[in-house]
Amino acid sequence: MTSFLHRFRAMRENTDFLYWCLVAKTLLVLALILVLYGWGTENVVYMGF
Amino acid sequence: MNLFSHHFLVFFGILFLAYRQLRSVTGRRVILTIANLVFLLTFLQTIKDWLALAVFLLLSYVMLILIRDSWKWICGLFIALILAALVFFRRYEFLGWFVPSAALHHTLALTGISYMTFKAIHLIVDQRQGQLAPFTFLSYLNYQIGFFSLVAGPIQRYNDFFQFWQDPGKTPDTERDGLESWNRMLTGMLKLGLLGTAAFYLHNKARELIVPQAGAAQAVTALLSSFYAYPAFVYFNFSGYCDVVIGGAALLGMKQAENFDRPYLARNMIDFWNRWHISLTQWIRDYVFNASYKWVAERWSRLASKAGYVLLFTALFLAGLWHGSTWNFAIFGLIHGVGVMATQIYGDALRAVFGRAGVKKYMASSWARVAAVAVTLNYVCFSFLFFSPELDRTMDMLKLVYSKVF
Question: Do the interacting molecules here have an ipTM over 0.90?
Answer without folding.
Answer: no
